[in-house]
Amino acid sequence: MSFRAHLLEETDGKVAGGLVELEESRLPEGEVTVAVEWSTLNYKDGMVLKGIGRLVRSYPHVPGVDFAGTVEASSDPRYKAGDKVVLTGWRVGEWHWGGYAEKARVKADWLVPLPAGLTTRQAMAIGTAGFTAMLAVLDLERHGLAPGEERPVLVTGAAGGVGSVAVAILATLGYRVAASTGRAETHGYLRDLGAAEIVERAELAEAPSRPLDKERWAACVDAVGGTTLAHVLSQMGYGRSIAAVGLAGGNRLETTVLPFLLRGVKLLGIDSVLRPYADRVAAWQRLVADLPLDRLEAMTSEAGLGELPALADAILAGQIQGRKVIDVRRYGAARFFSRLGHRPEAAQALASADGRSDRRTGGGGDAAARAGLGPGGAPGASAARAPGGAAVPPGRRARRRGRAGRRSAAPDHQPRHPAGRQRPVRPRHDRPGAPLDRA
Ligand SMILES: NC(=O)c1ccc[n+]([C@@H]2O[C@H](COP(=O)([O-])OP(=O)(O)OC[C@H]3O[C@@H](n4cnc5c(N)ncnc54)[C@H](OP(=O)(O)O)[C@@H]3O)[C@@H](O)[C@H]2O)c1
Q: pTM for the whole thing?
């Protein structure tokens, strides 16, 4: 059985991807095979799709840091065929093959059952971004945030994925939400999600003029980091907390210890990736209770796998509003195929055969087969041979071998990971001089 996926390749240090058809035998090891229905676009997906930050260990790689779908097969007693499941985190889509595919195979430990009351599409409308927003609110509550606050709760990067869900949850819980955004066109959208006031991004983006400013906020969910976080720290109310979630505005933090020492301000680090199972289930239950589905729908739009390259640029440029769910059974425009630059004549045949590639319409898939390509017209890399058998050009193979050899000095006969060749690059935070040292 084959399935379709967005596959990333690295060539001469550049990462590019496209749709391919893969045999199920290419799936990595794991106890549970899932028919993926929906994935989503997160900031980290943008980084992976563009090859930024060395988040991926080895290529070819299937990105997509989250997914929801139906179990097809499981060797773990906790799951059986037909169960609906959700996955976020665990470096899926980074170190492990991810959700931008019709099938995924993962460890049972990484899954949670689809929460009752949500469809797989709604679960992914929440996705990693919304799940993280909920973790942030839960941590703020654990540190004293409670209804009845006089001051507003600030959300930075409010019109993005984490921000939109945070605004909607906090407003539903009865807090007065101040939404900070750099996009004037999102003001109405944010008010519809429940924001009581709008704060211009520029107002918070400057480094603070003094370590302690007027106390302004009861709490903050910060998706931006950098000087914005330093600025907000100087404005926190006595004993109040900031949930540091993101770095859309930068990962450096230049501040003083005075907000901590003189105001008892708390800076709470939020990690969604390695959260234990019990935390995950609790967060999903709270999402069902505290995130109204009409507000979730209002912040959600859909895209297909073929739109991912453009979406990656958009999310890294801060241009995505709310949440973008990815329908992995929809492929988008055929013009994407020719961007890969391989077999352009076949891609042309594909484009002129139909002009679209939605499998449910019977569009480009057949045309792709006729053209001797995978449905994406992608190169028939050995790990991703198209049905017609299109092969990677010999020169390209040689370049790849050269690079792999330089990186790993691995002899060619060394066993390979089933998902592709090994590239033993240590994750960024695990290298000397990196921002994070070993725990
Ligand atoms: N800790 C975790 O486990 C975890 C999990 C998920 C996400 N994150 C992080 O959280 C952040 C948000 O993720 P997301 O998926 O919500 O991304 P997103 O949809 O792109 O939202 C980010 C928002 O930040 C604002 N922004 C963008 N560039 C900016 C800049 N240069 N200066 C100031 N504000 C800027 C924009 O909001 P406005 O247009 O409204 O200003 C943008 O919509 C990312 O850094 C992501 O890596 C962390």
A: 0.82
